[in-house]
Amino acid sequence: MIQQQLRQLLPEGKVHTPAALALLGGSVAALLVWKWLGKKMIQKKMEEARRTRDEGMKKMVKAVQQFREQVPSVQTDAILSLPLLELTRRLQEGSLSPRTVLYTYLEKALEVTQQTNCLRHFIPECEEQLQAVEGHKEKGLLYGIPVSIKDHIGHKGHLATCGLVQCLGTLMDEDSVLVKVLKRQGAIPFAMTNVPQSLFSYDCSNPIFGRTLNPLNPQKSPGGSSGGEAALMAGGGSILGMGSDMGGSIRLPCSFCGLCGLKPTAERLSLSGVTGPVNGILAVPCALGPMARDVDSLALCMKALLCQEMFQLDPTVPPIPFNEEVYSSSTPLRVGYYDTDGYFPLPPCMRRAVKETRRALQAAGHQLVHFSPPRVPYVMTELFMKTFFADGGRTWLDVFTGDIADPGLKPLINLCKIPRLVKKLLALLLKPLFPRLAEYLSAMAGMRSVKEMWNHHHQIQLYRSQFISQWKELQLDVVLCPVLGPAFTTGYPGKLLTAISSTMLYNVLNFPAGVVPVSTVTEADEEELKLYKGCCDDPWDQTLKQAVAGAVGMPVAVQCVALPWQEELCLRFMKEVETLSHDKRVA
């Protein structure tokens, strides 16, 4: 057969069969060797990255041990239990030293990462920053506070890997604006935390640094893509962290790990010096934001960051300082609420949380008004998914060139590899049986022209206008709504990309949105979950049911939303929810 094909390709009389076969065999062998060498090179780079991380960990262990020998009487538990505001007060007055606080958190972070694998790298320069902070005449708002930062937020002399091998060779030339401002305010960045490969997942695993576990339950995911931050903080190894959010990447980990987190309006904090595997997606912008144990910590962080230093370093950030008056206000609010978005019904415990919070707010004197977010299925598929997969996923697939794909991303990678025409055909065939899956497949086919993309951007603008008009008609101040949770069993987020509709909506709208834990999963919730049917009786509904099962005792959160540029009002509302839920638990 091969001989016949060779004879057809080459002029008659010029085929030397053994030589041709040897050439063909040699070519195949060379290709296999080339692929094998490529894999070996990838593995070598990953091993080097892990070795560098481990060496950094050992140095930190030695540094902590030396500190312990010098100051053996540190009350570690007492320091770790202090809320951020109280810790800040003690550092400012001098009853605690920045050195004691830093080494206390370094020690705890080492313990937490051994259990959860949440750290990508310690920042050894934290000791230099400590010395600089101790020498400051003026004490910033975050004086002496250790801060952890997400992998891709640039820190001078360190990698921003995004969990990708291709990013292992380039060190950042300078600090991101966010890190510069944190340092100017007296904070001490001490660790960079793990992320899912390419950041495009709400699990937390990559082939280089491995999987991060939820410290509250190792069978559960900490969420993503700011999953390393959430795991470190929930385990007590950090008191303040910085994450990023493009579809729920701050809010989902906070929901899964029982933390407070804020996704501001995208342009409120500088993105300068923050890297990503796929850049230039402006229709649904990325936002940086704080993660912490309580809402007051988020407010303090925003107050510290929204300063002249940030406005001067990045003139694209609107020079709007933090409005303390709005945050401290006690005026009753007019609150819109809903417990389902009509696209992906959440488990019973998450809807219960909204209902209980609504009743508590009403009893506290706030006015509650039912609100229905318009056309969420359309937003999820036509606006959100088409933004990220405008080219059918080709640009995203390119980031895996010369890399090993994480198993959790393989379903999405395989889907992106399907030709556009086949995606459209499959969508047509699936529509009568599973309409939600069909719309998802159709959206994944992407767009075909610049004109179609311009129209897509215009449709996002129109939707934002419609949403704001509906908000204004009801004269709402804020909105209370559910967030995806409780924590998924590890591996399940990769099977349910579209389950993030509750958070995704406010990325498309570019509204500030935050998450507050208000309860925990009960045995009654678990029993009610057995009756959960979803909305479409398709494979996604069954998969969600499996993903959240076995979560008794895990955190249950709600989401709080305000209009663009009203972060202070969003935080004020979050604080009210936090106070009411705390009062209920105490009672």
Automatic annotation (TrEMBL):
Q: Name one Pfam family in it.
A: Amidase
Q: Recall the GO molecular function terms of this protein's record.
A: amidase activity; fatty acid amide hydrolase activity
User: Which enzyme class?
Assistant: hydrolase
Q: What is its EC number?
A: 3.5.1.99
According to UniProt, the reaction catalysed is: N-(5Z,8Z,11Z,14Z-eicosatetraenoyl)-L-serine + H2O = (5Z,8Z,11Z,14Z)-eicosatetraenoate + L-serine; (9Z,12Z,15Z)-octadecatrienamide + H2O = (9Z,12Z,15Z)-octadecatrienoate + NH4(+); (11Z,14Z,17Z)-eicosatrienamide + H2O = (11Z,14Z,17Z)-eicosatrienoate + NH4(+); N-(15Z-tetracosenoyl)-ethanolamine + H2O = (15Z)-tetracosenoate + ethanolamine
What keyword terms does UniProt attach to this protein? Hydrolase, Lipid degradation, Lipid metabolism, Phosphoprotein
PANTHER family, A to Z:
AMIDASE DOMAIN-CONTAINING PROTEIN, FATTY ACID AMIDE HYDROLASE
- Family label: Belongs to the amidase family.
What is the name attached to this protein's record? Fatty-acid amide hydrolase 1
Give the lineage.
Answer: Eukaryota, Metazoa, Chordata, Craniata, Vertebrata
The coding gene here is LOC100218384
